[in-house]
Amino acid sequence: MERRKFIQNTALSSVLLTPLAHSFAQSSKADASLKNNINHSVCRWCFNDIPLDQFLSILNKMGVGAIDLVGPKDWPLLKQYGIHCAMCNGAEISLTEGWNDPKNHQQLIANYSKMIPQVAAAGYTNLICFSGNRNGMTDEMGLANCVAGLSQILPLAEKNGVVIQMELFNQINHPDYMCDSSEWGIALCKALESSSFKLLYDIYHMQIQEGDIIRTILQNHSYFGHYHTAGVPGRHEIDDSQELFYPAIMRAIVETGFQGHVAQEFIPTADDPLASLSQAISICDV
Questions:
Q1: Coil, strand or helix: which one is 269?
Q2: CA distances to 12, 19, 49, 62, 164 from 16, in Å
Q3: Structural domains in the chain, sorted by start
Q4: 148: CB partners within 8 A, 6+ apart
Q5: How far is CA 180 from the centre of its chain?
Q6: Helical H runs in 41-192?
Q7: Which of 37, 42, 87 is nearest to 264 (CA)?
């Protein structure tokens, strides 16, 4: 399921989930047993029906110190709860309208030029971006267009210590999206030659698109600045009902010396979505 469609069409009710979140926050104790080899985060949109203040309190109880895909209007609330924004958003146009099309460059350059200093001032590092769809464009032309556009904001990102991260998607969930392979994304990183540009390696998407997850991470980790998780197939819980063995993947990430964040981005199906989240953190806490 696409992220934007889930946000629009989610069947869960905030009215129903509020008591659940309140109960969890009241009864749970902070998890002091996390090994801290993995810096855990959670994508906000997957739990969008729990009011943000309650969700941040829950993350505190779980011992999770970060959240993904939150924009500037909510950063003050994150700071109240001591939760870091591991992946900021709000500068992009859309998932389908990105840096590969020059017609988007003027707006994107303006958006990111405004957002980059805000990210830095808030004490954050990572800001998401998207390639956009091909729309008949060759991969070579799209890559050249991305280089031409992104090159105009990367000096500002470098000056502010901000890393622009382009997310990798698969073609099943996001047909026609250009940045759909680690090979293409790495070629873009090499062409840009900037420490302020990396790839958001989405394990769920890349398992569907190309597989070979652990080898890809071990051989190319220097280009990956952030990781997202979810179960395959379906983008649901990362337990043994799906095909990926996340403990081994997490051990490979730890082996690379990665110091960034791994964010849960699964859509819970269990009656207790917060129990699913707690289980996912435990699975990834190697």
A1: coil
A2: 8, 7, 9, 21, 37
A3: 3-284 (3.20.20.150)
A4: 102, 105
A5: 15
A6: 52-62, 75-81, 105-121, 139-150, 154-160, 182-192
A7: 42
Distance CA 206, CA 216 (A): 10
Tokens of 1: 């399921």
Could you give the CA distance from residue 35 to residue 125 in angstroms, rounded to a whole number? Answer: 23
Q: Which DSSP string corresponds to 201-262? A: EEHHHHHHHT--HHHHHHHHGGGEEEEEE-BTTTTB--STTSS--HHHHHHHHHHTT--SEE
Residue 150 has pLDDT above 80, yes or no: yes
Cβ pair 175, 209 in contact under 8 A: no
Distance in angstroms (rounded) separating the CA atoms of residues 51 and 8: 16
- Cβ neighbours for 121, distance < 8 A, ≥ 6 positions apart: none
- Beta carbons of 212 and 183 less than 8 angstroms apart: no
The token duo for 54 is 């309650």
Cα gap 251→62, rounded to integer Å? 21
Q: pLDDT of 205-253, one tens digit each?
A: 999 999 999 999 999 999 999 999 999 999 999 999 999 999 999 999 9
pLDDT, tens digit, for every residue of 53-90?
999 999 999 999 999 999 999 999 999 999 999 999 99
> 162 to each of 2, 122, 147, 221, how far by Cα in Å?
27, 11, 17, 19
Pair of tokens at residue 113: 């030029």
Axis-axis angle for helices 14-27, 52-62 (nearest 10)? 30
